[in-house]
């Protein structure tokens, strides 16, 4: 089975549609989202509608928490907080119901999906966690592979014989040893932060036991224009360029 794992779309429907087209070209069996489908970008309603129409399940991200639980807004910097408040005004009640139904984690066999850090934190960043805590967390998980988002980076952490190693991920295909455990940071569809402006996502092929990293070009200027038209903070446009 081929599973496309997308993350951190952040209201960037133009990037999301380009990624959906790329996913269609490689014929996956299913798509899952790691959350933060909204925030920063100008089209949160369109993104949530696409998730719903395409039957793409999602875990909850910290930006989703920000729109359904106002007490979480204190965790955001002022610019991000303004973005979330504007995002909330753009969302229909139907989309709010969709967001409220997002779970903190999805587990399927040997796979776990969570936004921030396992087992089910939507807020904790990978870079905040010590190597010893990462190692102990992976060791305690029942699942062999855990996909996370939140940092907008592409990275793989490997637990092999009680030894933890970590590497950046680039475009291409990588075999995974079934004897090891893995923590895979799936990058960002809508707001990459790796100095490469392309949308990014990963595909897990359980039959080949291989992870593929996909880079997708999209019309960035379209999203930038929509951010300015929506009156959203300029930083959200500049980071895409």
How would you describe the overall organization of this protein?
- The structure is a single chain.
- The chain has 241 residues and is α/β, with parallel strands linked by helices.
- It has one domain (2-238): Metallo-dependent phosphatases (Purple Acid Phosphatase, chain A, domain 2, 4-Layer Sandwich), CATH 3.60.21.10.
- Helices cover 32% and strands 24% of the residues.
- The chain has eight helices and eleven strands.
- The chain has helices at 13-26, 44-53, 62-68, 78-90, 93-100, 131-140, 220-230, 234-238; strands at 2-6, 30-33, 105-108, 111-114, 145-148, 154-160, 163-168, 172-175, 181-186, 199-205, 210-216.
- The protein has a six-stranded mixed beta sheet with strand order 3-4-5-9-6-7, with helices on one face. It has a five-stranded mixed beta sheet with strand order 2-1-10-11-8.
- The protein is globular.
- The relative contact order is 0.19.
- The model has no long low-confidence stretch (mean pLDDT 97).
